[in-house]
Amino acid sequence: MEKYPLVSILSTFKDSKEMLTLVADSVLLQDYPNIEHIIIDSVSKDGSIELLKEYESKYSENNFSLIWKSEPDRCIADGANKAAKLMSGSYFMFITNPFISSESLGLLMKNLISGQYDAVCGGAIFHRDGMIIRRWRGTKWHWRLGWMAVNEALCIRSELYEKYGPFQEEYINAFDYDFQLRVFMDKKVKIKTINKPIVYFYAGGTSNGSIADNIASIKENYAILKSNNVKFAWFTVLCKCFAAFLAYTFVLRKDISHELPQKTGNH
Fold it and tell me: How far apart are CA 167 and CA 174, in angstroms?
């Protein structure tokens, strides 16, 4: 195996210029030397396209590859699939939130380069307006008990996308869970978890927003389990809900505004 295999980082954005900046800057800071960043923009009107043009030279200066397109898509899963079709890396991640440190990707790849594992995932710090609302430590337990990886802290062999993809567009809130479930149900897939945070997750996405969004996500989780022929799907959903309730209820709430990445340059 080559010393530093190529990693494809997939991102989708729509009118999210500030988050695009934070994510791109965090990718540029990574000390892992072999990265291609594939960004699918859903025809943003907030200056994101002009920003992407600016970043082309910045990626080139870092010897990273930036591949981007701006075109209509049907949903996040559609955009993610478009990005996946363009990837050429041996491994890939789906990222729409910034890495925590310059060592984040390298930490994941250190465990993958050995060839012993097919996927490695770490934790995440969820916050809302700089206040921690959940810490996902990355500790693994059985998927039947409701466990899933933080999608944006998961680095996985690209061939597993070819085997278990594409991301299903019918799942608006939980297309990542559907993909992960198919991967983790394969007993031949070797997964390692790292009890270290990899990304700062900015809460407020489709599965972390209103009560209605959360209810929709629960319904999708149940449908996903049923579609993958998981027996007692209701029990797995109940475990997921209970684990999330504990995590959000008993987290040590702390203001981390000063730790969060800041935009570099004038955008």
Answer: 10
**Is the per-residue pLDDT at 28 higher than 80?**
yes
Residue 265 tokens, joined: 């340059």
Assigned token pair, 75 = 């949903």
Spatial CA neighbour of 147 closest among 248, 221, 253, 227: 221
CA-to-CA separations, 100 to 1, 143, 159, 249, 256, in angstroms, rounded: 27, 26, 27, 23, 12
Per residue in 221-252, pLDDT tens?
999 999 999 999 999 999 988 888 887 887 77
Q: In which residue are the tokens 């278990």 written?
A: 164
Say how many domains are in the chain: 1
Residue 2 lies in a domain: no
What is the pTM for the complete model shown? 0.90
β-bridge pairing 154-157 and 131-136: unpaired
Three-state DSSP state, 209? coil
